[in-house]
Recover the amino acids of this structure.
């Protein structure tokens, strides 16, 4: 559609420095400087309850984190959560997108309903699932189980991680679906027509035309979701508070507990540095992908 | 199976999926119109005499209004400030790109990839030292930072499609940069600004991590208030639902309106 705009004649160029500087300055001040400070704190002993006693402790915070089984449980929980939600949302999102790619009466309304969970405040979503659906006594699931002659299940106590995965997947499936649908709509109808004329059946159409076309969309979905899911917090805070035990304590939640529950700033900062490294590994891939798109002359 | 029959079944399946996905929200809304006794009744009631009691109760509690106002201030304030900063930045990068523009854009998104826990500790300490904790304007500033890259990208993507000749003509006629932006660019970019604003409001309104950690009684928005119901047992479900319903309704409606722009904004234009 658009090409890179030709460079303006020099005399007509405004001084863009002052147009860009405020935005850049704010971002630097509130993102880069705090992160440098996080690194600084990660090398220090610092407990908010005992502020006199501070000083550099070298790698001690990192050492105590990396040798703490709780930390590794949290890392493992984080990976399980991200991995399961990704698998579910991408698969379900793909199915829903293909379904909603078809034209049918009332499609706009139905699509609006499907994507609604994405706009629900995460805390509210946690409360709906925890109280009204999964509650072992008054919850809807308990009632359904009883009607079917089963014992009601205390979901969050018996299957804590599975419940969180279900809850988070419900919220993020619409995101995957919306993106995949958008990707699908850029597929040319002619190509599908041509395949049909050549005698391709529905499965072949899906396997050899739709899936390859969606390769880039799917990778963007996976990478963006990974970044968002790595920072999931509100759902866990409002539903299980990381429990029972450590069953749903993820890395962000553990750092929150260390910093604002135990006031161990140094240790929490060391955990935070690790969380940032984890996110950055993902981010590098995302940036490369988006950068490549940008290079293509389109945004 | 005829082609028509397949279509019919797929349609049914799509509606079924839509119903299933929407059900929890529907259930919440339904409970918001129940009394507390109805809310925990077993078997769950689908039909009941609807009452506005719970909604009224949620609304008339003075602190609900205060939390609502905090949500409005932090979401709208941060969006306004983000636009104020992003319009000039996006304008500069879209119309006067330099070899560094692409790097700047990528750097801006890269700040979104920093997990909040990575910076919460210093931000908390700085807020504490500045006495900004529990201040709704400070929270709005935090949200501005959070949404600025998204707003810049949404605007940038749109500005690039505005014909340059319009801007050029104004410039030749002696318009200043400010006049060019205000009189020429803004009137033609209404939809872009609206969609960037919607996206920013939605993200700020639903935000929980910063608000939980940086605010207390005074400045806490609805997300924090709703979270206070997390330990509520059966007695407060109708009220909890009513409060939640009012909290999510504005954003739900905005989300419905902004479906398409959302994809662009959230993926930084990587998918169209």
């Amino acid at each position: 559609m658009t090409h890179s705009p030709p460079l303006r004649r020099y005399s007509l160029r405004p001084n863009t420095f002052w147009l860009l500087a405020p935005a850049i300055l704010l971002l630097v001040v509130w993102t880069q400087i705090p992160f440098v400070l996080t690194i600084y704190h990660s090398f220090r002993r610092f407990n908010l309850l005992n502020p006199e006693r501070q000083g550099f402790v070298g790698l001690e915070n990192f050492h105590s984190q990396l040798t703490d089984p709780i930390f590794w449980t949290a890392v493992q929980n984080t990976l399980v959560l991200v991995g399961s939600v990704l698998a579910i949302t991408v698969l379900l999102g793909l199915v829903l997108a293909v379904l909603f790619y078809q034209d049918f009466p009332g499609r706009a309304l139905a699509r609006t309903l499907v994507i609604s969970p994405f706009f629900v405040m995460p805390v509210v979503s946690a409360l709906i699932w925890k109280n009204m659906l999964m509650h072992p006594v008054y919850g809807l699931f308990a009632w359904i189980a009883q009607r079917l002659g089963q014992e009601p299940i205390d979901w969050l106590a018996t299957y804590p991680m599975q419940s969180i995965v279900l809850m988070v997947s419900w919220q993020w499936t619409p995101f995957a679906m919306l993106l995949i649908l958008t990707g699908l709509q850029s597929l040319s109808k002619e190509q599908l027509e041509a395949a049909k004329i050549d005698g391709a059946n529905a499965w072949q159409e899906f396997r050899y035309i739709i899936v390859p076309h969606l390769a880039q969309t799917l990778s963007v979905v996976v990478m963006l979701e990974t970044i968002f899911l790595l920072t999931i917090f509100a759902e866990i805070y409002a539903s299980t508070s990381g429990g029972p035990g450590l069953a749903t304590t993820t890395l962000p939640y553990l750092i929150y507990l260390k910093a604002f529950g135990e006031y161990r700033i140094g240790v929490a900062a060391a955990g935070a540095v690790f969380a940032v490294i984890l996110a950055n590994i993902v981010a590098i891939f995302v940036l490369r992908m988006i950068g490549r798109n940008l290079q293509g002359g389109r945004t | 199976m005829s082609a028509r029959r397949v279509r019919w079944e797929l349609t049914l399946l799509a509606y079924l999926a839509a119903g299933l996905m929407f059900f929890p929200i529907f259930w919440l809304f339904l409970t918001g119109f129940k009394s507390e006794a109805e809310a925990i009744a077993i078997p769950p009631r689908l039909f009941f005499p609807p009452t506005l009691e719970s909604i009224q109760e949620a609304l008339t509690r003075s602190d609900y209004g205060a939390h609502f106002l905090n949500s409005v201030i932090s979401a709208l304030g941060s969006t306004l400030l983000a636009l104020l900063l992003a319009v000039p930045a996006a304008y500069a990068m879209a119309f006067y790109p330099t070899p560094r523009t692409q790097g700047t854009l990528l750097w801006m998104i890269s700040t979104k990839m920093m997990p909040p826990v990575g910076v919460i500790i210093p931000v908390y300490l700085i807020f504490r030292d500045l006495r900004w904790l529990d201040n709704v304007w400070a929270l709005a500033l935090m949200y501005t930072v959070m949404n600025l890259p998204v707003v810049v990208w949404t605007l940038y993507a749109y500005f690039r499609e505005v014909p340059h000749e319009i801007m050029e003509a104004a410039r030749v006629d002696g318009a200043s940069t400010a006049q060019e932006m205000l009189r020429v660019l803004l009137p033609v970019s209404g939809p872009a600004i609206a969609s960037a604003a919607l996206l920013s409001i939605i993200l700020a309104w639903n935000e929980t991590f910063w608000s939980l950690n940086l605010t207390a009684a005074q400045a806490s928005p609805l997300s924090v208030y709703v979270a206070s119901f997390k330990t509520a047992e059966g007695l407060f479900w109708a009220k909890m639902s009513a409060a939640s319903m009012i909290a999510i309704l504005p954003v739900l409606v905005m989300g419905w309106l902004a479906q398409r722009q959302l994809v662009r904004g959230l993926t930084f234009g990587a998918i169209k």
User: Anything to note?
Assistant: The longest strand of chain A covers residues 44-45. The CA atoms of residues 119 and 167 of chain A lie 14 Å apart. Chain A touches chain B through 117 residues (CB under 8 Å).
